[in-house]
Amino acid sequence: MPTTAMTCILFEGPLDEAAEFYTSLVPDSEILNIDPWPEGSDHAGEPLVVDFTVAGARYQLIAGGPDVALTQLVSIKLEVDDQAEVDRLWDALVADGGEPSRCGWLTDKYGLSWQLVPRGFTELMATTDADLKERLFKAMLTMNKLEMPVFEAIAAGEA
Question: What is the CA radius of gyration of the chain?
């Protein structure tokens, strides 16, 4: 069997609920496995480990207890097709207690950090035009949610 890799995240909260939420948002996502705490433990029957995919990438949530705090040191970056998808995911992830941050980052209601990037921005930033790249970057620094129409206007010389 080939070696596999996944990102493991120590997580405080309802592991199965969080994984169900994440997999419901993004195509090509699914819960692969839920392992409960063993019988006889204080948390018997509750999820100890949840394996899932988001957009085909593998993740594992591990019950971390109350001393575990998620930070932006770990985030899930989604590069999406268009502004409508950025908007849909942004709204869903900041709902019910999530918090927007800067430059396309946010923290969801469970405390996990995400980056939402329109694919067009990535393509524009691949330019060899240093002036355009600098103007795009400076615009990004002023934003919470990334706004593709602003980047397109900059690239067209309209902003």
Answer: 18
